[in-house]
## 1
Amino acid sequence: MSRALRFTLLIGGGVAFLLAMLHAARVLESADRALAGAFGLPAEALAGSAATAPLVVGALLAFGMAWAAIDIHRFDLKAVVSGSAVVQLFTGSALAALFGAWFSPFLPSLAVALAYAAGALYSRTEAGQRARQVEELYGRRISDGAAAALTDDARAPLDAQGRVQELSIVVCEIFNHPELMQELPPGEYTALLNEFLELASESLVADGGCLVECDGEGARAIFGAPLPAEEHARAACLAGLNLARRLNVFNEKAAARHSGRMADWRIGVNSGLMITGHFGGERLAGFGAAGEEVEFARRLCAANLIYGSGVLIGARTYEMAEGAVEVRPMELLRRRQDENWQEVYELLGLPEEIGVDERDRRDLYWNGVIYYREKRLAEALEIFQRVRALSPSLDGPVEFYVQRIRSLMLNGASADFETARLLNSL
């Protein structure tokens, strides 16, 4: 149960109990008689259900007004809501009197005033203001559940000035914009792109991500912030897999709606030190992430085009999620000429999702990569051709290695045969 809901129940229950005590003591009976007399109603109209109805209505309003006072962040709006409720209570009482019925507005109005005062007082506390801070910083970038957890967890920092954290990021982008723009009318192109962005952003947020970008290029979400998560790499991999499956279904529907045109999407997942904070200026600003690891994730996303893969993950991501995901090695990358090589992996799925046949093909593929890196090209080619024969459909990474090895064998692998690719060549 969220902190706001707990305080709503506490305030509403307390006010309802106080109303019951006041009603039992008949504290407001003289005021009721005076107003009823002003409306021209006899004293008998105040008896029976007419005497208990205001108590029931007041109790319900106590909970509703407490929630409104806590949930609405602007104090002028809170005052408008509470004032309007009181006006409507007295107006309703006058209208009831026109038909010879009595409804006391005093007890419900007191409930509104007390619940409003208590809720407004709570909202001025540090705990009450945290919900407003979460909404201002993150808005719809995180799920409702994550927002509630972040509001209730006082340990989670809300510093928007900038923090260095080890996080994971998922980048999903479309790479056939020129073709789509040329083949589709502007309206259809915009509709397809918005459908893609809506699905990608909702999928990443639903799987625990914080959406940091959603624009014409694609969607990007970080995992591990603002709500801390130790297994952010695993969560990012799972989110990438889920998104890939949903986008495959999306493309089937898009082809039917847009004359066979589909989005050529790719996904990159990377982990490492990133700076999170509130970026931007007066005209456009929001919570985001920056750093070399963010750029590397975008390069990984684009590298899928080279290898024919769908989802690539970095070495640090695999190191942190090892055992929780199944992968295949793709290639060794170097971010700069003077840096060590880093393995890049194709994300296949979760261990329980990989069947025996697929696992055997994966292991055979892995042997082919080892032979390739040892420059045993003929043996590597033979293995990759076996993997191709065992594959139920076109396998992009296998085709990449088959064509690359044939090209090397045709042109002759030189002594300085390079098995790593420089990042800036992607």
## 2
Amino acid sequence: MNPLITNTAFFAASPIIVALDFHNTTEAINLVHRLDPEMCKLKVGKELFTIAGPKFIEQLVVSGYDVFLDLKFHDIPNTIYGACRAAANLGVWMINVHASGGMKMLLEAKRAISESSHKPLLTAVTILTSMNEEDLKQIGISDGMDEQIKRLAKLSYQCGLDGVVCSALEAKMIKEVTNKAFLTVTPGIRLVNSLNDDQSRITTPDTAIKNGADYLVIGRPVTASESPKTTLLNILSQLGILQDHHN
């Protein structure tokens, strides 16, 4: 079917999370109005959250969007407990922390979610997708990228988190050392014609899914598109997720 025909189409559990990486709320809201909560979830990071605040998050939730609040909490355990409780109370779909905060911090994050009336998914960042082997050596991690990622993924799994934020290149490896149901949320997703930017460990949507990624965080390929919805439809069609009611 034509991927641009939407009147009979539905989106079976779209794995796409659109990153609202904007410098102001006006641009972010304009894009949101051009998207559809059935086609994607939304990610709000530190810059936009600092600008727009909790009210903006609540506005997105009321509009029907699943929101990934990407603040990468990393602090002492007691502070993390409070931050995760506050984030959960916003009604978001997912929050995250840094796995490198350690077991005590991860357990407090988990406790915060378990004690909240609304329980978002809790994920942990392993290694930022902008980092490479040389970056790790500069901060004293000398046994390699893969070993550190596996170490942090296993720690997150043992602490009862729902998954990790990682490169799609590592999704298969992470599931092998944890569990197939352990979620992998993968930034650094680029379309074939947009692979050159500031991310180090990147891949395309179809390769990410084949490698075991559960959710694909896609920013500029969608947000900078002349027709964001068309771009989403094309990606969903390529992934075999765009379906028809009459099939």
## 3
Amino acid sequence: MKLKNILAIVAISATTAILSVWGYGEVMKFKYTGSADNGKLPVNYAGFYGNNGGPVDFTAPATTATPAVVHIKTKTKAKQITNNSPRQSNPFGDMFGGDMFGDFFNVPRVQMIPEQRASGSGVIISEDGYIVTNNHVVEGADELTVTLTNKKTYKATVIGTDPNSDLALIKIEGSGLPYLIYGNSDECKLGQWVLAIGYPLNLDVTVTAGIVSAKARSIGVIGSNNRGNEPSVKAPIESFIQTDAAVNPGNSGGALINTNGELIGINSAIASQNGGYIGYSYAIPVNIVKKVINDIKKYGTVQRAYIGVQYPQESMSDEEKKKQDIKEGEGVYVMDVPEGGAAKAAGVKKGDFITKLNGTKVATGPELQEQVARYKPGDKITITYTRDGKEITSNLVLKNKVGSTEVVKNESVMDKLGADLVTVDKKIATANEIEGGILVKKIKEGALKNSRMQEGFVITAVNGTSVKTVDDFKAAIASAKGTIYLDGIYPGYTESYRYPVKLEGE
């Protein structure tokens, strides 16, 4: 063989080897696009190559993932609650002791709610300390403490929350932290082995195993335990991965991983009649998690898209379906198509069956909801539906809840109120026998304008919690949603008033 041929073969071999190494690196970089922007794997994945097809052994994924799952402890400070509503008293119960005179004169009752502590779990998703957890884990908390498996403890701050998906993003200050790589929840198969990792019952990190027993489950749990007088969750997203991995209180916000050690869900709920595990647990698919978390990081709030159709709920009985003339068929039955919505513009009509969204098959409401939740207003997708046995595919531009395609701004609650507020001065407070409050100096465009409140009103309580300064007021309404109740007085008058203030339209 001539020297020229030998050199050519060597050159081709070297080039192929270099291209192979480069190509593998690019594939790995694409695969691990979670928060590993530079394509390198976290240190906790060193030496781990996934399931090699041998006997089922969970030690590798468990060892890899546990360092990135954290224990979240919350503290809610003691609060003073004022209740101005009249009591429905037992005619005999208050005759002996109790607040007899308070009831008689309808004096506002003051109640102290003691300090509350709770705990949950979270998943580190970047080496600089971003952590995903459930909204219900951090909701209303005044202090957050995060503890890693190495027992290091950090103070955490809330970056943003989304009650509709029950997700929250918090952050600790650190570097070089272990974190989990995003998997693909669409690739979950029924019967596939999964591991749930968290801190149940205030125990140390715990790993349980099970299989995926169902997908796209809706169980009506998001928004069902709101603390306020009105549900704060207007449009919950429920398309859970159902597993039989044991999950108990404290697991909320923890990781559901596959046998490759990849994050495929955030554990969120338990099917239980007694608050403990009785067979099934539910996780938010990671493909929804990625969208929600990226929106919070980029925009400060979730960019929620709507296609503009009404469809039957999973809980609807056959009798209810018959009464509303809902037909059976393949896909999601369209009950109504409101004017001005994206679906209306795409030609969808009442009685159609939606079968695909951007080429992905959908058979139930939760499946449709899960697909829509991955997009933002303004995204252009295709919708496939059947009408009289004929399949139709149309282009569709998703819209936000107000019917436009614009990005939703992260407007604070104070901005929504639309008023100039100052701490009431001591002279006015003393003259009106109050410890403090917030004076409404000027009412502009916003929620207060629709509440019938007048300028000069002094707010003394928010949802029954006493407030004395503007800082107290800001803290009390920081995470408020739906309708809040503002109690107070008009200086010079003895009567107290309560104004309901709607922060968000229906």
